[in-house]
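ok trying again, last paste got cut off:
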Amino acid sequence: MSGIPSPDLVGLGPLKALKGEGPIVAAGTLGICVVGLVVGQVWFASIAHKKPSTMTPQWAAATERYRAMQLQDPIHGGAA
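nice, full thing came through this time. structure:
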């Protein structure tokens, strides 16, 4: 602590603060990625079996009527 830099840190500039912390940073980053993937998979698995509310027969019929009224399907719809 005499103010003289260690010979192994000379020339690293601002990167000397990261010397020796690479494995710790990599492990932390990997841990965060793994946690995110696990949480995402659990969330996806919890909603994967549910049908959206727009899949009811009433909704599909109303959507089909609306699309026909708006001529949104010109190849197969009312504008053909």
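cool. The radius of gyration is 30 Å. Helices lie at 22-47, 57-70.
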